[in-house]
Amino acid sequence: MVVVTGASSGIGRRRAGVRAQRGAAGVGARRLDRLNAVAQMCLAKGSPDVSVRRLDVGQRADARAFVAGCGEDHDRIDVLVNNAGVGWMGRLHEMPEDKVEELVATNLRGVIATPRPHCRMLERRSGVIINVSSLRRFRAAPYSAVYSATKHADRRPFHALRGELSGDGGVKVCVVYPA
After folding, report:
1. Cβ–Cβ under 8 Å, residues 77 and 127
2. Would you tell me how many other CB atoms lie within 10 Å of the CB of residue 156?
3. What does the pLDDT read at residue 119?
4. Which of 27, 42, 59, 68 has most Cβ atoms within 10 angstroms of its Cβ?
5. Separation CA 108–CA 147 (nearest Å)
6. CB-neighbour burial class of residue 131 (10 A; exposed 0-12, middle 13-18, buried 19+)
7. In DSSP terms, which residues pair with 132 in a beta bridge?
8. Residue 4: its pLDDT value, please?
C-alpha cells in the first residue's frame, strides 16, 4: 500500500493517481471534498481500495492517527509519500504570526511527525519513505522567507533518518526536490 499526504492537489494528487495503478492507496489532506475526488480518480485508475482520511500533518495527533488508520485498513504500508506542505508569499515583516506558525507546523514539524509511527516498516525491514521538499531549499527567494526556511530545514531529518536506517537494511529514505 502507498500512503500520500497532501493528496488533495498538486504533486500529492498526481502521486496518488500514479501509485493507484500499482495497488491500494491511502490519501490524506485537510480538504476532504477534494480528497474524495482523488479517491474516485484512484479507483478509476485501478486501485482496488483507497483509504480516505482527513489529515493536518501540522497536528501531531492527526499525523499519527492517519498513519495508524491506513496501516489498520490495509495491513501494511509499503511507501509513504510525505508531501503535505503550505506556502505564503509576501514581505516577511507583513506575515501574520499565525501564518508563520502554520508553515512551521506543516512544513517542518509535520514532515517529522508523519513518518515516526512507521515502526512496522522497521519490523518488516522493508519500505520506502519519500519526503517531497522544494528547490527553495537551495536558494531562498524574496517574499518567501519562512517557506524557504522550512524547506531548507525539512531535508535534514530525512538525511539523518537515512543514516540511522542504512545499517538496518530494507527501509529506504529519499528526499526529492521538484522543480
Report:
1. yes
2. 13
3. 62
4. 27
5. 10
6. buried
7. 176
8. 92
- Rounded to whole angstroms, the Cα distance separating 145 from 164 reads 30
Q: What does pTM read for this prediction?
A: 0.88
Report the DSSP beta bridge partners of residue 129. Answer: 80, 173
Amino acid residing at 66: F
Under 8 Å between Cβ of 137 and 179: no
Q: Say how far apart CA 128 and CA 171 lie, in whole Å.
A: 6
H/E/C letters for each residue in the chain? CEEEECCCCHHHHHHHHHHHCCCCEEEEECCHHHHHHHHHHHHHCCCCCEEEEECCCCCHHHHHHHHHHHHHHHCCCCEEEECCCCCCCCCHHHCCHHHHHHHHHHHHHHHHHCCCCCHHHHHHCCEEEEEECCHHHCCCCCCCHHHHHHHHHHHHHHHHHHHHHCCCCCEEEEEECCC
Report yes or no: 127 and 118 within 8 Å, Cβ to Cβ. Answer: yes
Could you tell me the three cell numbers for 43? 479507483
Q: What amino acid positions are annotated as catalytic residues?
A: 147
Which residues of the chain are modeled with pLDDT < 70? 117-119, 168-169
